[in-house]
Design brief:
Length: 286
Amino acid sequence: MVGLSAGEKHFIQGGIAQDLRSDGRKRLTYRPIYVETGLIPQANGSARVRLGATEVIASIKAELGKPSSSQPDKGKVSIYVDCSPTAAPMFEGRGGEELSAELSVALQRCLLGSKSGVGAGIDPLSLSVVEGKVCWDLYIDGLVVSSDGNLLDALAAAIKAALSNTGIPKVQVAAAATGEDQPEVDVSDEEFLQFDTSGVPVIVTLTKVGRHYIVDATLEEESQMSSAVSVSINRQGRVCGMTKRGGVGLDPSVILDMISVAKHVSEQLFNKLDSEISAAEACEDD
């Protein structure tokens, strides 16, 4: 928890009300975003994202597996987040475990859609190799290195950058299988298919402080929130998922307004991320 005096709380809330936050930003402005890709050689893809003093890492590992009987034409995707105890004192012990679980569930809800795959930002159909027999299992791991608020947006950005850095080995089906037999597959060590990130959304979290809501809240600002709504939005402006934090209820009209604002903000976030990912990949090539 962030310990603030009454004066500091008043200063934060007053600044937000006047559209001038403690660090000089307006209510709907993100902190500078920095992206680095390809930092974990053993992974199929990886990225580090810094959002102000918040720093997170995402890695992607692809392994061949067998699809579930209920979804034989789809691959599987799992997301797990670990909060390093060195990132913040509150991450030590059960505090870190609870936040890790909360972030993992929120990312799954926002990026993977429903259990049927509706609204999924990562298309499980693209991970199928042989229907009912072989598929790719994607393991997405997030690590919180340092925390100064807005972890969900930062983690989603890191996952998007890591996926853009991900190469899936090309697979040749050597022989068709009959009955219950598994087909023989040949996995290339040299040829890779670039993962399609065109449908992968960003997450925009709107944090309500007083009568107003802000994006990219710092830890101090989050300590003054009544509630927060995180909306995942793809490049076409379609809402892929949503999650809420905080005990205070929100009127449906307020939520609709927050979604509208999140759609607008997502455009500038996409542009900034695209620019940063392209620059990171250019540096990696050099």
